[in-house]
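Friendly challenge for the regulars: who can give me the C-alpha cells for this chain first? No prize, just bragging rights.
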Amino acid sequence: MTKLYDRSKYSTMVVYAVDVGGSTLKHGDVAGATYAVSSNCVRVNAKQHTAQIRRPIERGYVVNWTLQGDIWQEALAVDPDATLLLTTPVFTPEKLLHTQDEVVFEEFHMAGMANVIPQAMVPLTLSSPSPVHVVVDVGFSATHIVPWIDGSFMHVLRVGVECIAVPEVLFHPSDIGIDQDGIAGGIADAIAACPPFVQGQMYQHIVVTGGSSKFPHFIDRLRVDLRPLVPAEYALHVTLHDEYSRVLFTVVLYVGI
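First reply, four minutes later:
Bragging rights claimed.
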C-alpha cells in the first residue's frame, strides 16, 4: 500500500523525475510541475537519404543501459544533489535493475533514487473512490494490462510487443502473423485471472493511458471489441486518462522519497 508523507519533511529536497518510454523521455524538476520531452533514441550511420535509429528499450524494458546512459547525458540536466524519481516497469529483471542502479549512482552520482511503477501513478489521481481498477498502458513498444486491487497489482499481461504503426494491429495482431491476443482479449484475460468477486468492478473501472491510446477513436473501438468478451451481467466502462508522465509530477509524496 502506498503511503502519504508530510510535505514539510521534504520541502528542501530536490526531486528530478524521469519517465523512460520506448519512444520518448519525459523529464524535469517536479517542483516546477512541468516537464520536457526528448527522443529516447540515437541516429547512427546517417547518410544523405537513409538513417538507422537505435533505441535502448525493447518490449518495454531498458535492455541497453550503455545507450540509455548516453541519451541521458545529452537530454537531461540533473543536479547530482537531487533525488531521481524513475519509472520502472513491473517485473523488471533483477539484472536490469542492478545495471540501472550502477548507471544512476556511479555514472550520474545521484544523491538518491526511487523507482515507481508507471501504471501505479494513474489510480492515485482518479476521482473514483473504487479500490479496483484495470490500467491499460498502450505504449510505443509494449502494452501493459495491470489490474489493481487496494494498491497492489494482481496479474500483468504484455501485448503488442512489436513496434507497429497500424492501429488495427493492436486489436488483431494475427493480421501480421503475431500469435497473441489483441488489447481487448488481453484485458479480458487479465481480469479473468483475478478473484471472481472483483471482476465485475474491474470491468467498470478500465483506465487507458499511453501514447498509442491517442489514435483517433481508439477508446470507441476498444469498447466495441471488448463488450462481446464481457459477461452480460457486467457493466463496461472504459475511460482515457492523461499519460502517467503528467501524473508523475503531482504525486511525488505518495512514493515515500
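Residues 127-240 form a domain with the Nucleotidyltransferase; domain 5 fold (CATH 3.30.420.40). The chain is about 25% helix and 25% strand. Your move, everyone else.
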